[in-house]
Structure formats: C-alpha cells, structure tokens
Amino acid sequence: MLRQNLWKVILSAVVLLWAVVSLLPLKDQPFGDYVKAEASAKSAQFATVMTKVSDRIKSGKASSVYVALKQIGKEEKLDLSQFFPQVRLEESLKNVEKRNSILLDELLRRSKGRLQLGLDLKGGVAFTLEMDPAAAGGSDQARQEKLKKAIEIIETRINSLGVTEPIVRPVGATRIEVQLPGASTRENPEITSALQKPARLDFKLVHPYARPPQDAPPGYEVMTLEQEGRNGETQVTELYVKQIPEMGGNSVAESMATMDEFGRFKIHLTFTKEGSQRFADVTREIAELTTELKRRSGNPDARAQLAIVLDGKLYSAPGVEREIIGGSAEISGQFSQREAMSLASALNNPLDTPLQVKEQYEVGASLADDAVASGWKAALIGTAAVCAFMVTFYTTGGIVAVISLAVNIVIILGTMASIGATMTLPGLAGIVLTIGMAVDANILIFERMREELAEGKNLVSSNRGGFLKALTTILDAHFVQLIICGIMIWLGTGPIKGFGVTLLIGVVSTLFSVLITGHLLMELLIESSALKKLVMFRMLKDLSVDFVKWGKPAAIGSIALVVVSFGYVVYKGDAIYGIDFAGGDQVTASFTQKIDAAQIRALAKTLNTGEIVPTYVNDLGTGKEQLKIETAYGKSSAFFEALQKAYPNAGLTKLGETKIGATIGSEIKWNAIKAIGASMIVILIYIAFRFEFGFGIGAMAATLHDILMNIGIFVLFGHQFSAPMVAAILCVAGYSINETVVVFDRIREELKLNPSGALKDVINNAIRKVFARTIMTATTTFLAALSLWVFAGGGALHDIAFTFLVGIVTSTFSAIFIAAQIFYWWHKGDRKHVEAHQDIAPKYEWAGSSRASE
Questions:
Q1: At the top level of CATH, which class does the domain 201-350 belong to?
Q2: Of 486, 549, 766, 778, which is the most exposed, with the fewest CB atoms less than 10 Å away?
C-alpha cells in the first residue's frame, strides 16, 4: 500500500517543504542588522566600515545604511563583496561601483520578508510628480490628456520594476501621486528617477576630428563619456557631439535589458521599419566619414563615432566602419541590473512631458492597526469555524480535511512569496473564501462515500468509489474557476489582477491538497485498517420537494428582485462609485497629538460622511509626520472641521486641500466589464463542451443572475464600489459556476442511470441528491465569509465580506432554481430533446463519473 502511494508521499513532502522554505524569512529584517550578521569575512575591517556608516547617518550625509554603504564604496573604491563571500558575483565584473550596486541590491532583497504586504497592511513610499507647466501648456483639455498619458506610462514603468498593486492617480491639474507598497526610496533612490525620466533618446554625430580642449566647432557641444577600463577603473573621455540629432528615439520599436558574456548589462534596441532605414542611412554616412578619417590620419584603426544620448547623458559612442542594416543597436555603459531594466522600460514608454518630484514621503498603512489586527483575527476565526464544522459532521474525515486545508494554506502563502505577490487585506479575504470553497471538494468526496456506504460497500471500496465519482465534478468546477482567474489576470490591473493571482493560486493549491495529499491520508488510514469505521452526520435528511415545480415562481421572484435592485443602481448613477472609481478631495494637516485612524473612521461613520481614507505620512524632506484624509468630492472641509471640534487637543492645522483623481480609470472599468463578458462566454463554451449546450445556457444565465443580484443588493444596502469589489464580484462568478457544475454533473449522471425517467423526475432526483451537499458547502463558505463580516470592522474588507455572503446565498439558490430550470426550459421539458442534442457533448467520460462502483 505504501509502495503504491510512495509518489504521493514524496510529492506532498517536497511541495510542502518548498512552500515553507519560500516563506522564510517571515518578516523584514533591519538592513543594518542584516548586513552585520551576514558579513562573514574581514570582521574588523567591516566593523570600521559600519562605524563610518553610523557617522554618516548621524551627520545627515546618508538617509540609510544602504545609501551610506553605497557612498563609502564609491568614494573609497572599496569592494564590499569581500565581506560577503557567500554572495557570488561574476568574476569578470571588475567595476567596483557596479559590483557594490549588485551586491547591495541582493542583500536588500534577502533582508526582506518573502511574503510582502500591501499598502493597506504595511504602507510604503509615495511621491508626487508635477508636469513642467511650460511643457504642459495649452488648453485645460490638452493638459488633462498629457496627464492621463503620463499616468499610463508611469503605471507601465512600475509594472516593469516588479512593484505589485501600486496606486497611481492624478492630484490637481498637473500632478501625479504614486504610492508603492513596501518600497523605500531611501534604499532604492533609482525608483524615483526611473519613473520621472522623460526618456529622450538621440543618436548624434561625434565630430570626427576636433577634440577638447580645442575650441568647440560650430553646432557641437562637449559631452563626457564614462567607460569601464580593463581593471574596473572608470575612464573619462570628453567628446564634441553635434547638438542636432541624426535620429531620435521615436524610431525605436522595442528596448530590452540584456547581459553580455562578461555579466555586464546593456540595452538592446530594435528599430521600426522606418527607423531601420534611417539608421542604415546614418551609419552609411558615418562609415564614409570613417573612410575619409583613415585617409587623412593614416591610422587604419580610426573610426568616426555615433553618440547615443539618453536624457542628455552620453552613454556610448561606438565607432562605425560600415552601414548597419540589421535594424538594431545596443547601448552599453556602467549599468546595474535595476538601472538597465528601468532605462529599457523608460525607452519603451517615453514621457513627452518632463516630471519633477515635488513631494516625497513614507506612507503608513492605510488601515489602522486595529483594522489590520481585526482582519487577521477574522481570517483565523473563519478558518477555525470551517475546521470545527468539518470535524463535527465528518469526524475523522473532517480531521483529514483540516490537515489538507493546512497544507493548502501553506502552499498558497509559499507560492505567493515565491512569485513576489503582495498580500493585501482583500487578498486575505480571497484566501478565506478559498478556504471555504476548498472544503467543498472534501464534502463532495465524503458525500459520495456516504452513498457508497449506504449501498452496503466496505470502507475501502467506498473510499475509492466516492473519490472517483467526485473527481469529475471537482475537476470541472475548478477548471472553470481557473479560466475565470485567468481572465481576471489577463484583463485586470492593480487589485483586480492581484486578486485573480491569489485566487488562481488557491484553486491550484486546493486541487493538489485535496486530490493528492488529502486522498493519500484517507487511503493510508483506511487501507492500513487504522480507520475501520467512518462516522458522518447530516444537517438535512433527503427531501421530496418538487424543485422543478417551484422553479418557475422562484425564478420569477428572483428576477424581479434583480430588476428592482439593479434599477436602483441605475437610479443612483455615479453615486455608487467610491473614491477608487470617482476620485475625491484630500486634506493635508499637521498635528501635535496623533489621532488613531480607527477613531477618524468612527467619526466619519457617525457623521455619515461616506468613504474616507486617513493615512499618516512622513515627509522625507522635513522629517515631519502629516495626516492626509481622503473623502468624496465636496466633503473634506466639513469633515475636517468636525474632526477639529471632536479632537481639540490634537492641534490639527490644515496645510492644504486638493482634488485627487480616481485610481480606477475608465479603461480599467471597461476591462472589468470585458472580464465579466469574457467569463460568460467561457462558461457557455466550456459547459457546452463538457456537458451539452443547454447546460451551458443554464450556467451562463445563473452566473449572470448572481452577478447582477450581487451588484444590486450591494448598492441597495448603501455600499459604494471600490477597486477590490470588482474582483470580489468576479470571484462570486467563480463560486456560482462551482455550485452549478455540481448540480449539472448530477443531472448528467441521472440521465444515464435512469434512461426511462421523465426529464422533470431526473432533474428533481438529481437536485435532491445534491441538496444536502449544497447546503453543507454553502454553510462552510458562509461561515468563513460571516467571520470576515462580523469581526473585520468596516472598510473594504467589510464590503468584500458582504458581497461574499450575498454571493453564497444567490449562488446556492441559482444553481437549484435558475440553472436547472433554464436547462429544463431550454429542452422544453422533454428528455428526447436532450438526447437529440447529445452529439454536442463529448464522447468520453472520466472513469467512475457516472457508474456505480462494482
């Protein structure tokens, strides 16, 4: 028995070990403490270096240990890698400054906790960029278009830097605010410069004869070229470069950071069709100058040069001996990996209008400490409630489900850490919902085992038969969820995309933990005779309800509720959108006594102010802490005055007030609509392929019903849409299809087991057999969502939990009274009509999916 399952044992152990290792270290370590602990060579010399670091920070010459070490390495030409022999660098990399940059970046990465937290849980860094008023001149509409374009470019650049779930939004008429979770410009100042670079690329002619200190020829300017020597030293050369470029960066189709055989980073450029022709023309003309230069100088190695200038800096000036027709070029220089990547991204996304940094500050967590604590508490309570439910009703089987659930959670967190995904509170809510849905697979297996045992089969046969019969349903339901997650990642951005990644990981992890680890444990317990009897209790007995009969009035009532609630959505108009979608006002204030963010939220709730976002920030220029409060348009002044009256001893003084734009633009809203539409089409196609077209119509209608019902009830109860809510509604769509597939799979099985029964009887029998299981599954998921709603307090997490609660109820209802009824209506209540269309369904089936075990 163990030999047969050895591969499962090894695979489960390896995956679990990998997940645990991927999570370590669990928390960020102070960079100074980390480098002291990791410096394993030349301890006395490194202690001297760290003393200098401390002196620099105290004197204000450096803002952090990272920056101070970089400065010391550059000024003293000190190779810091000698203190860290365990960090391997390319032997051919001789440039000390570049070696230190790569080393410090790697040490910084290793010092961070592997599972990064988002802005709501941990905070990060933020800065405000402003367009040059002169460059942004013109009408207000023209400025708005330039600002919108700049925001799109910055979002693209941030994505290339690997920062997940950032916030980028307009502030006022000419400013852009950028918030990056977990980042620090004190340790990574390149982040700021990478985002504000105009990325103007020019190819310019170097004067073939004149060199400084000669007088500059007319139309030329002196530029400095820094190159790495053979031993890593920096060589400085001055050249006269033509002021008017031969061609510009608009000829570049693609830019990519690459590495040569010596470990040096460079930027590879690919030209457009027109750019390729222009580059060939330019290099041909310079090649002719090379021929003339050789003739006049008598030097066969002489070359005329083409300068590559980016944002006014000369990066390289390669010699040109012949026409280059390959349509590509390279920029070489002393780049670190991050610099090369940011430059390549900037070249791919050039800014038309220069941006200047006006404010730079560290952002505290957007949620108060008590809100974060209550969020984690709610997650733990929800998980405990699900576990207690499973153990109560399935005893030993429930314990196995809990163990597989623990494996599931570890794999989810480990995978998120390994791919650099950011954990936000909405993401945590997604994991809690995944936990509720994960036990659904176990319930499917256990309920099938109950049926096998009721037929008089022994425990070994019941375990095998129950697993095989549930396998089809589990795979179908989770595969559709995978597709929906893929659509969220494909069409979504920011929190929508992050939510999709979290759920996708959860779906895959659930399949592994249940079908591999959980099934392995049950087989070991049962086939070793350690478990001789499986005790299972029931919430409900079998019902004799005519579901088809009640389907029509239930569907009519439900559709009426959808129409009324969605009509209210239309009536409310733009009022349904929160700050993420609609933007709002932002007040900046100083204070003498800090007010807890939870108290600010409580006051807003008392005054019925609506959505507010209080955040404490530290200005990196002055070091002073400030309070920023975001509200809906027109509510900031009144609320701030109320806050001053409520806390007179806090010394609140308004420093400024401005309008902030939406973090969710029209493009993202349109993408969300496309994501829902694409999900509907995918559901129809997949269910039609796996089952039959009538099933596909029923599944699509039920899912659409649940989405519209959720939106309507959400607004009807006074909630406003935020960015995570879009992802939550798409998540409900995944849950809805999961419930529908379970019912449809049983109907398909009943059609084969009962070949002479009327379609109405077949549908009723199928629903009766899965009704208890459906209620059990809904209960476990409802418990998980209810804990979030009760214990997580207000804010986005409360709204998400509310959506889940409504979604669980509507999905359970629609699977029974909408999806099955539409399938019945589609086939006109005639079984022969179903059989006439079975040619659409596939000719294969999963083993044991519709046959009783022998």
A1: alpha beta
A2: 549
Q: Is 749 helix (H, G, I), strand (E, B) or coil?
A: helix
Q: Where are the beta strands (DSSP E) in 412-498?
A: 422-423
| Confidence band, pLDDT 50/70/90 cuts, at residue 240 | very high
Two structure tokens written together for 777: 């599954």
Residue 315 host element (H or E) = strand 313-316
pLDDT digits (tens, 9 = 90+) for 535-565: 998 887 777 888 888 888 988 898 898 889 8
* Distance of alpha carbon 847 from alpha carbon 837, whole angstroms: 23
Q: Is the pTM of this model over 0.85?
A: no
pLDDT score for 841: 41
Question: Does residue 659 sit in helix, strand or coil?
Answer: strand
**Record: fold of 117-198:** Alpha-Beta Plaits (3.30.70)
Q: What is the mean pLDDT of residues 793-809?
A: 81
Place of tokens 């299972």: 536
Q: Please, what is the end-to-end C-alpha distance for the chain in angstroms? A: 21
Q: How many residues does the chain have?
A: 854
369-532+543-572+666-840 belongs to which CATH class? mainly alpha
User: Is it true that 117-198 and 201-350 share their CATH fold?
Assistant: no
Chain mean position to CA 295: 60
Q: Where are the domains of the chain?
A: 29-111, 117-198, 201-350, 369-532+543-572+666-840, 584-660
- Own/partner long-range contacts of 277-284 (Cβ < 8 Å, ≥24 apart): 278/247, 278/251, 279/203, 279/247, 279/251, 279/324, 279/327, 279/329, 280/323, 280/324, 280/325, 282/203, 282/246, 282/247, 282/306, 283/320, 283/322, 283/323, 283/324, 284/323
Sign of CA dihedral 672, 675, 679, 681: positive
- For domain 584-660, give the CATH number: 3.30.70.260
The DSSP 8-state label assigned to residue 285 in this structure reads H
**Taking phi first (over 0 means left), then psi (-120 to 50 degrees means alpha), and beta for anything else, what does residue 330 get?**
beta
Average the pLDDT over each of 10-14, 313-317, 476-480, 618-622 and give the range with the smallest value: 618-622
Structure confidence by residue, pLDDT tens digits, 332-370:
766 667 667 766 776 776 676 777 777 777 776 665 566
Averaged pLDDT, 453-474? 92
